[in-house]
Amino acid sequence: AIREILALFGSASGLQVNFAKSSATILHGDQAATEMIAHLGCPVATLPITYLGIPMSTRRPSAAQ
Fold this sequence. Notes:
4 strands; extended; single chain
């Protein structure tokens, strides 16, 4: 279902998701969330991650960072 929604968004906007360059991060998920991501065909990433060069985490950065 998610892949179809993204395809619909792509046809409306002209933007396409590159699943080879994409990853998904589950913050508070369960087995169902993991299965949904498996159907997308993109890897699962764990925190911390870097988004647009900025480190992303659920914790506040320390003074050293």
